[in-house]
TrEMBL record:
<dbReference type="InterPro" id="IPR005904">
    <property type="entry name" value="Hxn_phspho_trans"/>
</dbReference>
<dbReference type="InterPro" id="IPR050408">
    <property type="entry name" value="HGPRT"/>
</dbReference>
<dbReference type="GO" id="GO:0004422">
    <property type="term" value="F:hypoxanthine phosphoribosyltransferase activity"/>
</dbReference>
<dbReference type="GO" id="GO:0006178">
    <property type="term" value="P:guanine salvage"/>
</dbReference>
<dbReference type="GO" id="GO:0005829">
    <property type="term" value="C:cytosol"/>
</dbReference>
<dbReference type="GO" id="GO:0046100">
    <property type="term" value="P:hypoxanthine metabolic process"/>
</dbReference>
<comment type="pathway">
    <text>Purine metabolism; GMP biosynthesis via salvage pathway; GMP from guanine: step 1/1.</text>
</comment>
<keyword id="KW-0808">Transferase</keyword>
<comment type="pathway">
    <text>Purine metabolism; IMP biosynthesis via salvage pathway; IMP from hypoxanthine: step 1/1.</text>
</comment>
<dbReference type="GO" id="GO:0032264">
    <property type="term" value="P:IMP salvage"/>
</dbReference>
<keyword id="KW-0479">Metal-binding</keyword>
<protein>
    <recommendedName>
        <fullName>Hypoxanthine phosphoribosyltransferase</fullName>
        <ecNumber>2.4.2.8</ecNumber>
    </recommendedName>
</protein>
<keyword id="KW-0660">Purine salvage</keyword>
<dbReference type="GO" id="GO:0000287">
    <property type="term" value="F:magnesium ion binding"/>
</dbReference>
<dbReference type="GO" id="GO:0000166">
    <property type="term" value="F:nucleotide binding"/>
</dbReference>
<feature type="domain" description="Phosphoribosyltransferase">
    <location>
        <begin position="14"/>
        <end position="159"/>
    </location>
</feature>
<keyword id="KW-0328">Glycosyltransferase</keyword>
Length: 179
């Protein structure tokens, strides 16, 4: 897999450091509350585990699965709900954990869904933010790294379902998706 990567952006250690920092911030901000942590499948799984290990607060955990890419490197613009949230959302403080915010469409869709279900508050914790990609007006509250406007993979992020298990985040060689 390493041969398909043009450049490593964030090493395993840098990601661990960011997750630790965010977990500590969340611990401070959510002291005395009991938030529901919702991890957005599949991309956020590795990062969610890292953040949770640093999050020292009573919390329950759930998952939601959405899809907007359908295999390419450009967002399709349409968000599909692949797996519903099973927890009761009403009145809850929600921490949504994402891999990356690009256009912001996925996040906007999820925030609306949670608000319709009666969430009291929704905050967003993301490993990566690509502010240049933004098409709709949403923002993340806890950000690991701001990334340049390139297609990145690794640490949960895929290209055609591959590279999620790379232990770092890197830029994929264009030759891989131009094949
Ligand atoms: P948005 O709806 O903000 O455009 O995109 C959100 C989703 O698109 C992310 O959760 C992620 O799954 C995917 N995505 C956006 N940018 C990238 C990228 O650079 N690399 C990969 N692998 N996925 C991305
Ligand atoms: Mg995602
Ligand atoms: Mg994807």
């Amino acid at each position: 897999m390493d041969n398909d990567i043009e450049k490593v952006l964030y090493s395993r250690d840098e990601i661990a450091g960011a997750a630790k920092r965010l977990g500590k911030e969340l611990t401070r901000d959510y002291a005395g509350r009991q938030p529901l942590v919702i991890s957005v499948l599949k991309g956020a799984i590795l990062f969610t585990v890292d953040v949770l290990k640093e999050f020292d607060v009573y919390a329950d955990i759930d998952f939601v699965d959405v899809s907007s890419y359908h295999g390419g490197t450009e967002s399709s613009g349409k968000v599909d709900l692949v797996r519903e949230i099973s927890s009761d959302i009403k009145g809850r403080d929600i921490i949504l954990v994402e891999d990356i915010i690009d256009t912001g469409r996925t996040l906007k869709y999820l925030i609306q869904l949670l608000e319709e279900k009666g969430a009291h508050d929704v905050k967003v914790c993301t490993l990566l933010d690509k502010p240049e990609g933004r098409v709709v007006d949403v923002k993340a509250d806890y950000v690991g790294f701001n990334v340049p406007n390139e297609f990145v993979v690794g640490y949960g992020l895929d290209y055609n379902e591959l590279y999620r298990n790379l232990p770092y985040v890197g830029i994929l060689k264009p030759s891989v998706y131009q094949k």
